[in-house]
Design a protein that fits this description.
- This protein folds into 2 domains: 99 residues, no CATH class; 73 residues, FHIPEP family, domain 1 (Glutaredoxin, 3-Layer(aba) Sandwich), CATH 3.40.30.60.
- Helices cover 46% and strands 10% of the residues.
- A 4-stranded mixed sheet has the order 2-1-3-4, with no helix packed on it.
- Helix 3 runs antiparallel to helix 4.
- Keywords: Cell projection, Cilium, Flagellum, Membrane, Transmembrane, Transmembrane helix.
- One of its GO terms (biological process) is protein secretion.
- InterPro entries: FHIPEP_1, T3SS_FHIPEP.
């Protein structure tokens, strides 16, 4: 009106410069975000993402009716491609009508039979779950004196010193090493576990000495290598 335009021309220009420009800017962003969501979505059933999207979109006729209403409103905006929007609206309305007819013809699903409740069943709790240690060690019965304070065992103190030294060097404290005996192991056997998985094992001989050959020894000592 300010530039000598008619009411219809002014409304058309205003619509193109506001709604049209907004749609041009938002539709690519919507497509990109939808594509990113499809890529990173994890499917929990045997169907792929495409089959699930088709099933969710076309399983309920109300979804098609809502989409048809939105496209119909856009098709009535001056300056928009009215014919294209109205054609899509008619197609969605026809699809919604077909889905509703198929839904009415579908046989009713039988109601599930309710089983009598058994009040004697005790539900599982977290107390029934054995939590695994982050870092653990199992020893045979012959190695128990090495980890028992009452028997002058020094292993726990040395592990504590190693954790302290590691924290000073690396800047974080490693998890506590939980030590327990395991009667299923060989008497002098030990194994190291991480989250319940064995990552190392070996044999130790308490009461014996470790002899290291510096390279200049003339003879050998009886023992195990």
């Amino acid at each position: 009106l300010q530039h000598g335009m008619s009411m219809g021309s002014a409304a058309e220009s205003y619509t193109l410069l506001t709604i049209g420009d907004g749609l041009v800017a938002q539709i690519p962003a919507l497509v990109i975000s939808t594509a990113a969501g499809v890529i990173v979505t994890r499917v929990s059933t045997d169907q792929d993402v495409g089959e699930q999207m088709v099933g969710q979109l076309f399983s309920n006729p109300r979804v098609m009716l809502l989409a048809a209403a939105v496209l119909g409103l856009l098709g009535m905006v001056p300056g928009m491609p009215n014919l294209v929007f109205l054609l899509f609206t008619a197609a969605l309305l026809g699809l919604a009508w077909w889905l509703r007819g198929r839904e009415e013809k579908a046989p009713e699903e039988p109601q599930p039979v309710k089983m009598p409740e058994n009040n004697s069943v005790v539900e599982a709790t977290w107390n029934d779950v054995q939590l695994e240690d982050s870092l653990g060690m199992e020893v045979g019965y012959r190695l128990i004196p090495m980890v028992d304070f009452q028997q002058d065992g020094e292993l726990l103190g040395r592990i504590r010193s190693i954790r302290k030294k590691f924290a000073q060097d690396m800047g974080f404290l490693p998890p506590v090493v939980h030590i327990r005996d395991n009667m299923d192991l060989q008497p002098a056997r030990y194994r190291i576990l991480m989250k319940g998985v064995e990552i190392g094992s070996g044999d130790a001989y308490p009461g014996r000495w470790l002899a290291i050959n510096p390279g200049t020894a003339a003879g050998t000592l009886p023992g195990e290598k």
